[in-house]
Amino acid sequence: MASKIEDTQDVCIKERPIELDYRIHWNKKLGSGISGPVRLCTNKETGKMFAMKCLTDSTRSRQEAKVHFMCSGHRNIVNVVDVYANAMALPGETRPIARIFLIMELMEGGELFEKIRNHVRFTEKEAREVAKQIGVGLHHIHSFNVAHRDLKPENLLLKENTESIHVKIADFGFAKVDRGDLITPQFTPYYASPQVLEAQRYLRAQKSGKYPYLKKPYTYDKTCDLWSLGVIIYVMLCGYPPFYSEVPSKQMSHGMRRKIAAGEYDFPDKEWSKVSKQAKDCINRLLCVEPNRRMTIDEFLEHGWIQNDNIPDTVLFTPKIIADDGAFKDVMDGHAAELTNMRLASKQIRLKPIELSKNPIIMKRKAFHVANNENSKDKVKLKSNEEDEGTTVLSQQDNSQFSLLAAKALRDIIAFCLMMKPVHPNIIQESYTGDKLTGLVLDALQKTQGNQAIENAFITESWDGKKFTSSVNKSRLAKTLSEIMLQAERVSTL
Predict the structure, then answer these.
(1) 321 and 228: one domain?
(2) Domain of 215, in residue numbers
(3) 229 and 327 part of one domain
């Protein structure tokens, strides 16, 4: 694909006060981009409504404005219509701060997966059409030699709230011209390519100072967007991601990294048996570990699945799987607590682990994974990883959620586990636990609501949110809860 001249005419950044031209509805927040919040605004002259993204004025913010403006003007890209540079105090602030304001077209249809979620009969043919639109938009971005680097469901928006689906790519907060020097590991874990993860590992090794021979940076290119596209199509066709963390407390576990690096994923029969071979082949060619073997955007648009007008109207499981509020929130918004920390290699990525998702498919796959590794060496490795990752480490926020009632609830569970006579050593059979242990756990969760360490302790014992789905290791559960309480007491005395 021949690239267009990369340094096209720069965006015209206006310095006149934005409020002379637009009325900003500060109380109407439309969403949060990776680099700043988005609010509703109205053009005072025409009365037309737009979306306004507010950024702190910086080289990076101006770069985002430039690249997004450069890629605008396409039917599958959210258009930037105005850019302002003003010093302004937002509501609640006492002093003005230099900011960049991006005025963008209003996407009234919301997020793509919200639409799919409410689509009673979402078919493979419709999924193919959506994938094609995303590909056409990505082709336009790549034609400027730009890597988007944050392609994910949250950044796929719909122009209108109608029956037809018109998708546009949004949020260029991490887009960058690809000069062969993409070294900063910008990624959202579920959609990260092997090369982006390797760039992160390499950068951390360099910063540690332990490897002086690592002089040149590890670089990757815009093919990372094609990997992300493959993950999106996979999720769109079944409702869950191909890669997920096996460690409850980690968003990106060692196992997940290994599977991404090796390109290890599958197509479970229940959800994939009726999906066409062409669709699976398309995913396989996008989720190819070696970037030089991965499809380019041109090859994707020429692939048989995209070109075939006779794709079957097979009804997919996707809407049913993501229809549950908890499952939908975890799949769609699990990237999320502090978006600004996602891309910083020096900070911990704070995302909700897919392992804590209510998505029944993820839970089923986890159970299958654990059962198949029960007597293997991988079991020892998994246990080691869980210990290394600190599955029972209490954060300061977790500790603040302890109370006398919460402590009593945990002690009741510990006492029950230690005093209950097992049928076999260290194992409480379901007939012994029954409603009693379930009731104790539900009571404890209610009194320690939001405490991640405690939730993880129960999830490790096959807790699905309502009950234990298999036998409980009483010694391990009692020990884990005791450690959590001990840590809470230590933190409270600091």
Answers:
(1) yes
(2) 110-342
(3) yes
Does this model's pTM top 0.70? My answer is no
Q: Which band of pLDDT confidence, cut at 50, 70 and 90, is reported for residue 335?
A: very low
Where is the domain boundary, 326, 342, 358?
A: 342
Domain identity same for 72 and 96: yes
Our CA angle for 22, 27, 31, nearest 5°, is 90
Number of domains in the chain: 3
Active site amino acids: 150
Q: Over 470-483, what HEC string results?
A: CCEEHHHHHHHHHH
Query: Between the ranges 134-148, 170-184, 353-367, 448-462, where is the mean pLDDT highest?
Result: 134-148
Q: What does the alpha-carbon distance between residue 111 and residue 78 come to, in Å, rounded to a whole number?
A: 12
pLDDT digits (tens, 9 = 90+) for 224-277: 899 889 999 999 999 888 876 666 556 656 676 677 777 888 898 888 999 999
Residues 99, 127, single domain; the answer is: no
Query: Residue 50 corresponds to which tokens in the numbers above?
Result: 């737009």
Residues 6+ apart with CB under 8 A from 36: 53, 54, 55, 56, 61, 173
Q: Residue 205's closest CA among 220, 194, 192, 216?
A: 216
